[in-house]
Amino acid sequence: MTDSRISSPKTGKPWFVIIVFFLVHQYVAAQETGDHQYTSQAIEAGSRVYGQQCALCHGPQGDTVDGIDLRRGQFRNASSDDDLRRIISQGAAEGRMPPFVLRQEELDGVIAYIRAGFDPEGIAVKIGDPTRGQVLFEGKGACNGCHRVNGSGPRTAPDLTDIGVLRTPDALQRSLLDPISALLPINRPVRIVTRNEEVITGRRLNEDTYTVQLIDSQERLRSLVKADLVRYELSETPTHEPTSLSSDEVADLIGYLYSLRGL
Amino acid sequence: MKSMNRIGLVLSIAVALLLSQVAISQVSFERILSASEEPQNWLTYNGGYSSQRYSLLDQVTPENVENLELQWILQNQVFGAWQSNPIIVDGIMYVTERPNSVMAVDAVTGRVFWKFRHTPADNALVCCGSNNRGVAVLDDRVFMGTLDARLIALDRINGKPLWNVEVGDVNRAYSVTMAPLAVKDKIMVGVGGGEFGIRGYVVAYDAETGEEAWKTYTIPGPGEPNHDSWEGDDWEHGGAPVWVTGSFDPELNLTYWGVGNPGPDWNAGQRPGDNLYSDSVIALDADTGELTWYFQFTPNDGYDYDSVQVPVLADIDFNGEPTKVMMWANRNGYFYVLDRVTGKFLLGKPYVRVNWSSGLDENGRPIPTPQPEGMPTYPGNQGGTNWYPPSFSPRTGLFYFSAWKDYATIYRAEESEYEPGRAFLGGGFSVLAPVPGAPTIGIGRTNPINNWTDEVGHASLKAMDPETGEAVWEYDQFDVSDSGMLTTASDLLFTGGREGYFHGIDARNGELLWKVNLGGQIVMAPVTYMVDGVQYVTVISGNAMATFALGD
Question: Cβ–Cβ of A208/B438 closer than 8 Å?
Answer without folding.
Answer: no
